[in-house]
User: What shape does this take?
Amino acid sequence: MAQTIEIPVPDELLRLVDERAQNAGLPREAYIRAVLVSAVSARPSLDEILAPFRTQVADSGVSDAELDRLFSEARDELHREQGMRPADER
Amino acid sequence: MSDDRPKVGCVFDCMIFLQGAARRESSAGASLALVEFGAVMLFVSRDILVEVREVLARPRVRRNFPVLTDQIVERFIAAIEERASYLVSRDKDILDLADASTPDGERLRRFAPDLQILEPGAFLTEIRGRLQAHPG
Assistant: This one.
């Protein structure tokens, strides 16, 4: 069962919320609900868990294409060791 | 977004998890954020998560990104499991996690109360029932 609450929100804060919601591709209500869930739950967010890795990726200056190639080669290498063919050769 | 509208279900392949883990601002990262926000239902298989774990442990990946430790990878995999709607597996060790009377099962239930762990046959039965309840 869900309840609807009404709270006053300053225009500037609402502008920031809408900006973040748009970046996440979510409607305002869904974004606010997700932020609330994240804030009151004990579990860490994906952003928190991955922050060190993402920072190192960004700092490395690696391009999207280079990153794709690195992951693809690592995956194909794994498949070869496991006796599997890479997905694009199946 | 209405709560009573059936959510879009999605399956990500290994590369989406890898690219999304590396870059939040990528399309793959934004797709993972939709899972984080509960905007979509994520279906995962044990095979895909094992593949993600093993690719992120490859020496060539670790050489490029030494900050990527086993701990970060394990926390990432666990976070995906916690946010998934369905974990489909034939692995008995995984299926046993559905038993909340065990310590591991109880812990998983606490962090992922909505996750259903099913073997493929039970998964199909579940999804067919949903499709019949929400045709089209």
